Amino acid sequence: DQQVKQNSPSLSVQEGRISILNCDYTNSMFDYFLWYKKYPAEGPTFLISISSIKDKNEDGRFTVFLNKSAKHLSLHIVPSQPGDSAVYFCAATSYDKVIFGPGTSLSVIP
Amino acid sequence: DAGVTQSPTHLIKTRGQQVTLRCSPKSGHDTVSWYQQALGQGPQFIFQYYEEEERQRGNFPDRFSGHQFPNYSSELNVNALLLGDSALYLCASSLYGDRGYNEQFFGPGTRLTVL
């Protein structure tokens, strides 16, 4: 029973273009949604979060959009850079218990 | 300022054995969470420790147990190892607060292989 889903295992984007990573969830009780980035041989690194009462949060090149009615969120990276190549995990939390999706591997091509 | 550290980096065990993994939280953090990440999957929540007690637990059997020490460091113990326990084990630390989410900082993980 996967509560957080990332249906695209991989994504390739040209440097300078927009990267859009998608995530769907099933549990309406989640109160925060998170994006983590993971490089090989390192632990996940927190990227950006959004509260369930918001619909958008922006931090530099990263913007997360939340559509509660569709139980869908997305991460936009503009402009994409080669250093953004990593696995991106969507996650949701309820009372500090974090549920991760399976991840999307992003490749930014120079 | 040291981040989250974990030891050992890699470990090889055989079925039926027991293993102990260790985690030191980021300076100033008091809460430790453990995750199991199987190949090609996202991290799966095992349990969380705060004030030396297990606060929350995911869907893992009792073979998985833990401990938190007064200095906030933590251990994860797995008994009667199965082949399916082979995974990357991640530790994350955070500072307890009354918000719904307290940012978790992850260590590099311990790669456990069960033969």
Keywords, separated by commas or semicolons:
heterodimer, A: 110 residues, six-stranded mixed β-sheet, 11 strands, globular, B: 115 residues, mainly beta, seven-stranded mixed β-sheet, 50% strand
Structure overview:
The complex is a heterodimer of chains A (about 110) and B (about 120). With about 110 residues, chain A is an all-beta fold. Chain A is built from no helices and 11 strands. Chain A has strands spanning about 5, 10-15, 20-25, 30-40, 45-50, 55-60, 60-65, 70-75, 85-95, 95-100, 105-110. The N and C termini of chain A lie far apart (about 40 Å). Chain B has about 120 residues and is an all-beta fold. Chain B is built from no helices and 11 strands. In chain B, the strands form 2 sheets. In chain B, strands 2, 4, 5, 6, 9, 10 and 11 form a 7-stranded mixed β-sheet that branches. A 4-stranded antiparallel β-sheet of chain B has the order 1-3-8-7, with no helix packed on it. Chain B is globular, with a radius of gyration of 13 Å. The model of chain B has no long low-confidence stretch (mean pLDDT about 95). Chains A and B meet through strand 4, strand 5, strand 9 and strand 10 of A and strand 4, strand 5, strand 9 and strand 10 of B.
